[in-house]
Design goal:
The protein has about 290 residues and is mainly β. It has helices at about 75-85, 120-125, 155-165, 205-210, 280-285; strands at about 5-15, 25, 30, 40, 60-65, 90, 100-110, 115, 130-135, 150, 165-170, 170-175, 180, 200, 220-230, 235-245, 260-265, 270-275. The chain starts with 6 loop residues before the first strand and ends in a 7-residue tail after the last helix.
Length: about 290
């Protein structure tokens, strides 16, 4: 870890956006719902990812880099999303909340936002456009020679330490709240990298939801996706295991659901996920006192 680079990346609180006024549900019902962006005052990591009158809502503050890279027009926000890691410290750099501290809790593909958790008091002071400095740290993190098959992605070393995975012979035991079959993973599947963005847990099959206890999913839960390999993108591979964090709420449209940002993957199944109810980053990083 002493060879990892800690680098500043800066974004600003994004305004909410609506591309289409109506969202069409998987059953053909049109609805008008809150979605991505903005400061979400009453939703943070640790809260349920289901049951809200909302679609793809992001907890805390949604942050984006709007600088124009003259070479590509988007390189700055790509770097912002790739280099920010879950667990990184975030500092408000402008506005009424200047100097207040938060924590990166996820990344959302498609809209390309980084989500930052702040206390309720800080959220009340934030405005769209306020600058957020993230001390990016964790890109390139490896588990040394002991687990060469296991890739760690998007993870601050402080989160890994708090998470505390333990060796089980030649495998690694990892606490998670849920096991999720790769068969129900949707939007985001097939991406050619997992250093930014997320992909979604489809919850349209009631039998699967009940079988795996997915009605209890919370934002910030660390979950294991069984038969999924995220080594070089997101693919189905029997025997592989990937672990990630739930980063946005459930969705009503086909192919979508609570999003998962990848934190760890093993193409050979050397990750052994074991159910631990409090394996949520809100608890591990002590982001809230009420859970």
């Amino acid at each position: 870890m002493d060879r990892l680079i800690k680098l500043s990346v800066v974004g600003e609180v994004a305004s909410p956006t609506i591309r289409n006024v109506y969202t069409i549900s998987a059953t053909g019902r049109p609805q008008v719902l809150p979605g991505v962006g903005g400061v979400t005052y009453n939703l943070r990591v640790g809260d349920s990812a289901l049951g809200w009158e909302a679609d793809h809502v992001e907890p805390g503050a949604s942050v984006v880099n709007r600088e124009n890279d003259p070479r590509s027009g988007q390189g700055a926000n790509t770097a912002f999303n790739v280099l920010a890691c879950v667990g990184n410290q975030a500092v408000v750099a402008s506005g009424e909340a200047k100097g207040d501290i938060g924590t990166v809790v996820g990344k959302h593909g498609g809209i390309e936002h980084v989500m930052v958790d702040f206390s309720k008091e800080v959220l009340e002071k934030l405005l769209p456009g306020d600058k957020i400095l993230i001390k990016s740290y964790g890109t390139g993190l490896k588990l040394q020679q002991y687990f060469p098959d296991i890739k760690v992605i998007n993870t601050d070393p402080a989160l890994l330490e708090a998470w505390d995975p333990q060796p089980i012979g030649e495998k690694l035991g990892v606490p998670v709240t849920h096991h999720i079959p790769a068969a129900i993973m949707g939007s985001g599947l097939g991406a050619n990298q997992t250093n930014s963005g997320d992909y979604d847990i489809q919850l349209f099959d009631e039998t699967i939801v009940e079988q795996y206890g997915l009605e209890t999913l919370r934002l910030g839960d660390l979950v294991a996706i069984i038969d999924a390999d995220h080594s070089f993108g997101r693919i189905y591979r029997r025997g592989a295991v990937s672990v990630g964090v739930v980063v946005h709420t459930n969705c009503i449209c086909a192919g979508h659901g609570p999003g998962v940002t990848t934190l760890m993957t093993s193409s050979e199944g050397r990750i052994v996920p074991h159910i631990t109810p409090d394996a949520n980053i809100a608890s591990l990083l002590k982001l809230r006192e009420d859970i």
